[in-house]
Design goal:
The structure holds two protein chains of two kinds. By secondary structure, chain A is mainly beta. Helices cover 15% and strands 37% of the residues of chain A. Chain A has a seven-stranded antiparallel β-sheet with strand order 5-4-1-2-3-7-6, with helices on one face. In chain A, a hairpin with a 5-residue loop joins strand 11 and strand 12. By secondary structure, chain B is mainly beta. Chain B folds into three domains: 183 residues, Thrombin, subunit H; 96 residues, PDZ domain (Pdz3 Domain); 54 residues, no CATH class. Chain B has five helices and 27 strands. The chains are: A mainly beta, B mainly beta. At the A-B interface, helix 1, strand 9, strand 10, strand 12 and helix 3 of A face helix 1, strand 8, strand 24 and strand 25 of B.
């Protein structure tokens, strides 16, 4: 028996990710999720979460900010926002090109308005989708973790609590589609320049040579 | 968090998918969506019978992308299994679990309906059951139910455990509106029969029977505890039962040394080796045990019914955000609707899809 270590590990992982989760509201009804992308106020979400109003971003600690839309990319359904805050608990980003089918995946968001709701599953399929823009084809992650309206823009994380994708849509009622973190990293660095590389994951910090 | 138990479990699940995925192949033997198969040995692919809709021009794509043509080595519609023979023995055989699966154990359903790599869904073994009668007229010695989602095209693919060993073969073609898995031991036994004989023999006795209690004194006379047996209420003329001298009012309590205490145990006993051979039938006649020798003949499989289709046009959005998404998914695991095909893009970014209303006799996975 594992004596509860597995339960403890998953509970710790989830609570660490929940702090990096935001609520993004930009329409009269409903709202999506957002990912605290950098400590100094960048928030990543889905483009379709945005509406006519300027987006309101609510953090896990209930602080609420009017956000500025820095860039949107409808082709991959991503949007980058900035809020006037610092020392934010940004979520670590994993390299989605290293993903394998069968790995665990957890979706965190606000499905049907339930705040910080977690659903679990695995990476079901690593495939690609046609787009109408210049990219032509983008890689997508499919997962069997249950998604619902309100998960949009929220993180799909791996077993270590690192973002592997941005939950974007539901196919056939029972399959979730996420935009891989590599596409998001690419989008953010195109917009912001290279200085906004993703927050280093704990794993990569451990691999730093000790001086 | 590098040595977190959850991350270790996650990695071992990906390992399991990789290992079993090597034996999971694409089977293209029907119109529309291809399905999945699993390598029984280097030369044979086990798949679901209902996804093999043609006997010629069958293509199998292995995990490494090698495309091979295949022929049908045998079919068993009763258990919805078919065995394909590859033109070259290049497949990586799958490994099966020892014995039965356990309720609650991790179960991952695998499929390879596209050439974009293996697909998986996660769940547990939800239930295991004894014999079930399938709507195709057969009897399955056991079945497994899982909550892993059977995505379109997963039929014929494996349900694996956390070590990548096959627990069962997934199929949605056995009716009952649900998808279930055929236990690996049952499936592999069927496959061995198909490889050798090209079919699985199911016996025919020619009796109508009714489940009755076996009285205590008759149990004493039998020398074993057996609460129930099958009362013969009709014997078909010229059938093995009539020729063996079985009479109305006999109570069948055993076949070939095995206890018969319900219809399913008689059906199970009548398949396989007993067909065509003189077999001892254990009956109670006037409360006393007697043996009747019958020669069980082969049962003729009922004809396959193809479902009627009603077609309707459905207009739906194909675009979401900027992604042009060609639906090939189902409306849900238990829906009677199936979308398929890439529609032509119309005005306003809308696409046309054919929606088929399928009889559950002809589920499309």
């Amino acid at each position: 028996m594992l004596n509860g270590t597995l339960t403890q590990a998953s509970a710790e992982m989830v609570s660490s990710v929940q702090h990096g989760l935001a609520i993004v509201q930009a329409k009269r009804w409903g709202g999506g999720a957002g990912i605290l992308w950098s400590e100094d106020g960048l928030v990543l979400t889905n483009n379709h979460v945005l509406g006519r109003r300027s987006p309101q971003v609510t953090l896990f600690d209930d602080r609420s900010f009017k956000a500025e839309v820095i860039a949107t990319d409808p082709e991959v359904d991503l949007a980058l926002l900035r809020i006037d805050a610092d020392a934010l608990p940004a979520i670590a980003i994993a390299d989605s090109t290293e993903l394998r089918v069968g790995e665990m995946a957890f979706a965190i968001g606000h499905p049907w308005g339930q705040r910080g709701y977690v659903t679990g599953g695995i990476i079901s399929h690593l495939s690609s989708a046609q787009t109408r823009g210049r990219r032509g084809v983008v890689p997508i992650i499919r997962t069997d973790a249950a998604l619902a309206p309100g998960n949009s823009g929220g993180p799909l994380v791996n077993a270590s609590g690192e973002v592997i994708g941005i939950n974007t849509m539901i196919v056939g009622g029972d399959q979730g589609v996420a935009i891989p973190s590599a596409v998001a990293v690419d989008f953010v660095s195109n917009v912001m320049g290279q200085e906004y590389s993703p927050a280093p994951s704990e794993e990569s910090m451990e691999q730093e040579p000790l001086i | 968090m590098a040595d977190n138990t959850l991350a270790k479990l996650s990695a071992s699940m990906a390992d399991a998918v990789e290992k079993a995925g090597a034996a999971t192949v694409l089977v293209n033997a029907r119109k529309r969506m291809p399905a999945t198969g699993i390598a029984y040995d280097a030369e044979h692919i086990l798949t679901a019978d209902h996804v093999v809709q043609r006997d010629e021009d069958i293509k199998v794509i292995l995990a490494d992308g090698t495309e091979l043509s295949a022929t049908v080595a045998g079919r068993d519609p009763g258990s919805d299994l078919a065995l394909l023979k590859l033109e070259k023995a290049e497949a990586t055989p799958a490994e099966t679990i020892e014995g039965k699966g356990r309720i609650g154990q991790i179960a991952i359903a695998l499929g390879r309906p596209t050439s974009e790599g293996v697909q998986a869904s996660f769940g547990i073994v939800s239930a295991q059951g004894g014999p079930v009668r399938t709507r195709r007229g057969g009897l399955l010695e056991g079945h497994i139910r899982t909550d892993a989602i059977p995505y379109p095209g997963f039929s014929g693919g494996p349900l694996i455990d956390a070590d990548g060993k096959v627990i069962g073969i997934n199929t949605s073609g056995l009716g009952m509106g649900n998808s279930l898995a055929i236990p690996a031991d049952v499936a592999w036994r069927v496959a061995a029969n198909l490889k050798e004989h090209g079919s699985v023999k199911r016996g025919f006795l020619g009796v109508r029977s009714q489940l009755v209690e076996v009285p205590a004194d008759a149990q004493k006379a039998l020398g074993r505890e057996q609460d129930s047996g099958l009362l013969v209420v009709g014997v078909e003329d010229g059938s093995p039962a009539a020729e063996g001298g079985l009479m109305v009012s006999d109570i069948i309590v055993g076949l070939a040394g095995e206890m018969v205490d319900d219809h399913d145990s008689l059906m199970a006993g009548l398949s396989g080796e007993v067909v065509g051979k003189p077999t001892e039938l254990n009956v109670l006649r006037g409360g006393k045990p007697e043996n009747v020798t019958v020669t069980v003949v082969e049962r003729k499989e009922p004809k396959r019914r193809h479902g009627r289709r009603r077609r309707a046009m459905w207009r739906g959005r194909r675009h979401h955000g900027g992604i042009d998404f060609s639906h090939r998914g189902s409306h849900g695991p238990h829906s009677a609707f199936r979308f398929h095909g890439k529609g032509k893009r119309g005005r306003h970014g809308k696409a046309h899809f054919w929606v088929e209303h399928l009889d559950d006799e002809d589920t499309d996975e």
